[in-house]
Structures are given as structure tokens and as C-alpha cells.
Amino acid sequence: MSKNRFRPPLLAAACLLVTSIAQAQADRPVVVATAVLDKVEVAGRHYDNAIGSADAASQGTIRAELLKSRPALRPGEVLEFVPGLIVTQHSGDGKANQYFLRGFNLDHGTDFATSVNGLPVNMPSHGHGQGYSDLNFLIPELVDRIEYRKGPYFAKNGDFAAAGSADIAYRNTLDENFAALTLGQRQFRRFVGAGSAALGGGLNLLGAVEVQHNDGPWKLAERLRKSNGVVKLSGGTRAEGWSASVMGYDAKWTSTDQVPERLIAAGTYNGQPFGRFDAIDTSDGGETRRSSLSGEWHRNTGAEATNVVAYAMNYRLKLFSNFTYALERPDDGDQFSQQDQRKVYGVNASHAVEHRLGGLPARSEVGLQLRHDRIRVGLYDTVERRIIGTTRDDDVRETQLGVYGQASVELTPWLRSVVGLRADPARFKVNSLSNAANSGSASANLFSPKLSLIAGPWAKTEFFFNAGRGFHSNDARGTTASVDPRTGDAVDKVPGLVAARGMELGARTEWVPGLQSSVALWKLDFDSELVYVGDAGATEANRQSKRHGIEWNNRYVPTPWLLIDADLAWTHARFANFDAAGDRIPNAVDKVGSIAVTLRDLGPWSASLQWRYLGSGSLIENNSVRSRSSLTTNLRVARKLWGKAELTFDVFNLSNRKLNDIEYFYESQLPGEAAPVADRHVHPAEPRTVRVTLKMVF
């Protein structure tokens, strides 16, 4: 670990917060309305977004029952149940997804923090992009709930959570053991089996295994091979208990990356027909592995609640990409490899207590979050996955500590406030094995105040005001860099932590029987925008940015067998300061939407139809080139068979539209071209895809 120590004032602040809570415990406990989501149970609903359940209009919980109602082409698409969030892909399916939310192209996870089963998913100082969030190890059938929050208003959320966050909780036990086999077009095969058993003495054991193969629609077969497993031991009760988990995941694949539109228009390449699903560099692809050990302990007496999580992870990725073809190395091609190997250790602890503050009912919470990454990360020139040169090779040690405190106070029967403060010191140590000039140490500290006011309810309607400061970290290598590793030119160091400031006005209502509806007007300003650079395959720090927008989310259950979801969002995103290049943020999508109609338990039948819209966005700063919008229709029909068997029929892209999952605009040069060409580069969405699943319960 780094020898740098966290500054004494931060430790003093933590001690002060703990002392305040200890003093508050001396007062008589008083129950007060809070936003502790696991206390809220709304019978018969798939969303825990009821009045009194949250501190913001854009906060909520998604239950497992809803996840079963719609198909997901990839595991990461479970996040599309978060209103306003769209998930796509620009490369092989073993790679982290692309995420879009609130006018952000979040790339592979920057500014949207995710956790699964208590483990953080985002990777700082990652080989392929800051905040890389690979959810392909997720087993959707094990998900109990998804707790989501948007904006930097929540004291417990730290790095990468400025735009939002989602905590995906796994079950401790299953209602029924099951095995499911899915078969689909293009050699898609998936088996998942899971079960749980009571061992006696209050202990429960859960186990699950998943294996998958997929070639995809690509002319170059993807040959995705994935294996996945979870073992979880738990004991105790909801009020006081513990769990320990072991998880392992391994995947290999060949990828068809984005291709230039000029080649699609020409229809031929090297004398052979060339289409949307063809590849240029047939050796692109990757392999990844992730294993973890984690434990959790909790106690909730009603007046007090304590939670502790500890984890250790071992992770590695080898990724081979070629986005510019023959621009830099005409003879060998431009393929490069981004490699990341790391061990991650962390602990999160929180303690909350109900008390009185100035005679008013209150609930206060303090927490500590500590994470240490030991990373070997590199960038290499390659030919057909063979290393021929080293651009960067670094040993990185990165340590982040978060200390927070917040208090929720019932000011009047109709007005509640939540005030919080978060302190985040970070330490970076880089040992550059390829260029000693880029070695060094750096540190950063950031204080983030938070404020929420919740008014109501009146006529089953409540109103919210939220404001706060959040942040994302920058790649540790940028905090110590002196020279460009490829050109040797001098470069400026980047700050370790970059602040964001956000504000939101919202309302939530259940005034119409059966309808939960919310609206949020929000803004978010960043001191430095992280932008994905298509021809480099990485993110880089850019100018200041500002965004504002509106979201309107609706859940309507007119009868027990019918559920209608409608989520619409519009965003205005710009760079904040003047530049002759323009003020548009590349890939900042301006509109997204999702409408789904679900029929449930009509005898043995259930069905769901979803329309998913990803709007247009500027591809370059002057807005002269824009991406095309896309509208996708997905269908699921399920029928219960004999005993406890169920057959599910999924159709993705039902209307078989020619759509793109992602579009970029940059210069590339194909072999034989005389000069670089600035062009639109696209990765097509999959055509109509049919999958059938047989699930047996036992």
C-alpha cells in the first residue's frame, strides 16, 4: 500500500461524527420517517416508489418480479429498468456495456456507480476506461432488488456516482430451486441452475452456476464462452444476520468492433462483399476473469441499524482492439491491447440511530468506505494478439477513503430535511515501468455537502428539493504523467478527483388510483468532462460541462393483470466554456424513452411488449454530424406448463430494424487508402433475434 497517510483533520471529522451519534443515543429513540428502502414494503408492486419511501423523485427500488417480465439481450440490460437508462454495446459481448443516462455517454460506467452483492463493479484507473463497469458476471435470476439513485445528493455515494448509482442485491435463499436452458439463433446456448437449502442451526446455503455460448449475428463468429458461479452462505434473520459469498467468472470472445460507414456503402473490402456485420481486424477480442470473496453483517433493532461489508477481488482483462485500422502502422495495422490485472480490497461500514435533535424526531447515520486497488495496467501495440511494442506499462496503487455523515430531521409533520457531508481523500502512486518520467505520487481531497427537503404528502403527493456535490476520480496515471507515452511531448497532470454540482426539483404522486408518477427537473455541472475517444479506445479529461433536463416516469396498474410503464427523459448537454471547436459534448444523447405493457398471470399465460427509444446526439463538438435515433421493440411471451415448468419465448428487435447500438465520428485509414478519412463509425444493433427458454422448478 502507499505510504501516504490520510490527513488528521479527516480522521478528526470522522471521530466527531461518531461522537455526535453516541451522544444522540442517550436520548429516547423516536421513530421518524426515513428513506431506508428496505423498510418500505408495497404489497403487489414491482417498484418501491411509494409516497414516503425516498428522499428524491429520481430514487427507487426495482423488485425481482419486474425483472422477470421483460427479456434482456445481455445481463447488463437489467439496468434498463432504471428509468431513463439505456444499455448498448460497441464491441464483443464479453466487454462491458455502453450506458446512457441524463445526457451522458457513460462509456463503460464512468459517472454511474454499480455494485452487485455488495461488491463494487466500477474499476478506477482501468486499462480500457475510467470507471469500467463490466456486469457480464451478473446472474439475473439471483437478483432480489435494484436500488437506484440519480444525482450527487446522497452522502453514502462516492466515486463515479455523480450521474447516478445502482446497488444490485442478490438473494440469500430461493423460493424454489430451478434449472433453465435457453436456445436461440446463431448458436446461442445458455444453462443456469440454482438452488438453496437450509443446513440447520439457522444456516442457509445458496449455489448457482451459469454457462453460455454465443456466436452473434457477426460474419466473424463471436464465439463467446462464459462460465459463472456463486456460492453464498448466510445465517441469522433480517433483523440481525450475516452472509459470506464466493463468486467466480471467466469469459473469452472474438469481437467485431465498429466499422466505417464508407466501407458499408462501398459494399466490398479486399475484393469480398462487406456488410454491416463484417469485421476488419479478425483477431480483435478479449478474455476476462473475475473472482471474489465477500462478507456482510447487519443488525437492525428499529432504533439503531449497523451494517458492515468486507471484500477481496482478483480481476484481469486482456482486450484487443483496432479502431483506426492502418492509420498509424500501415504495414502491421493499428491493433492494440489494453491489459489490466488487479487485486481489490475494501470495507464499508455504517451505523444509523433514531434520536431527537433540538426536540425534533431525527435519524442520523455515519459511514466509512475504504478501497485499495493494486493494479498492473498496460497499453501495447499488437498484431493478431501478439505484442510487438509497449506504449505504457505501469504498477499503480490507488487508495480511496470515504467518510460521511447525514441527519434526517422531521421539521414539521409535512416537511423533512436531510443534511449530509462527505469527505473523500484519495492517494495515487504510479511506478511507470516503461517511462520513469511518468512515475510519482499524488493525492486529492474533496468535501461534498448534500441537502434534501421533502414536503408533503398532500393528496398522496410529495415534493422534493435536492442539491449536492459529487465527483469522479481520474485515471491515476494522469495524476503523475509528465510526458505523452507515445509522442514524448510534455503533458499536464490531471486532478485526482473532479467535482460535480447538481440540483433537482421533483414531485411524486399516487393521486390517481393505481398510478405512481414522478417528474424531476435537474441540472448537473462538471469541472471536467470525461469523453470517450473512439480512435484511441479510451477516455480522456476534457472541458467543463453543464447539463439540465427533465424526466417523467410512470407506473400504472389499472388491474392486477396489467402493468404499464412509461419513462421519458430529455437532456440539454453542453461544454461550459468557449472553444472554437464548438460546445457540444460528443455522444450526449438528448432524448431517451421506454414504454412497456405487461400482461400477468392470465391463466397460464404472461406477456410483455416494450418500445425502447435512444435519441440522437452530436458526434463532434460543432454539431455538424449527429448520431441517428433508434427505436427497438422487444417481446416476451411465457406459458406455464405441466407441474412447475415454464416455457418463455423472447424476440428482440421484433420489427427487424437496421439500427446502431453506437456511432462515433473520427479519422481512420483502411489498408490501401491514400490518406486518413473522417467518417462515421458504427456498431450495429442485433437484427431480429429469437430465444426460447425452458425452466424447470424442483
Features:
698 residues, mainly beta, 5-stranded mixed sheet, disordered N terminus
Main beta sheet? 22 strands, antiparallel, barrel
The helical percent reads under 10%
Q: What's the number of helices?
A: 4
Distance between the termini: 48 Å
Average pLDDT value?
Answer: 90
Description:
The chain has 698 residues and is mainly β. Helices cover 5% and strands 56% of the residues. It has four helices and 39 strands. The protein has a 22-stranded antiparallel beta barrel. The chain has a five-stranded mixed β-sheet with strand order 1-7-8-5-6. Strand 23 (440-458) and strand 24 (461-473) form a beta hairpin. It starts with 7 loop residues before the first helix and ends with a strand.
Give a short overview.
By secondary structure, the protein is mostly beta strands.
Element layout with pairings:
Layout: H1 8-24, E1 60-63, H2 64-67, E2 86-88, E3 98-101, E4 104-105, E5 112-116, E6 119-120, E7 143-150, E8 164-170, E9 178-184, E10 188-200, E11 203-214, E12 224-236, E13 240-254, E14 259-260, H3 261-266, E15 268-269, E16 272-273, E17 285-300, E18 304-321, E19 336-357, E20 360-383, E21 386-412, E22 415-432, E23 440-458, E24 461-473, H4 476-480, E25 497-509, E26 515-526, E27 530-533, E28 538-541, E29 545-559, E30 562-575, E31 588-589, E32 591-602, E33 605-614, E34 617-618, E35 630-640, E36 646-652, E37 660-668, E38 677-684, E39 689-697
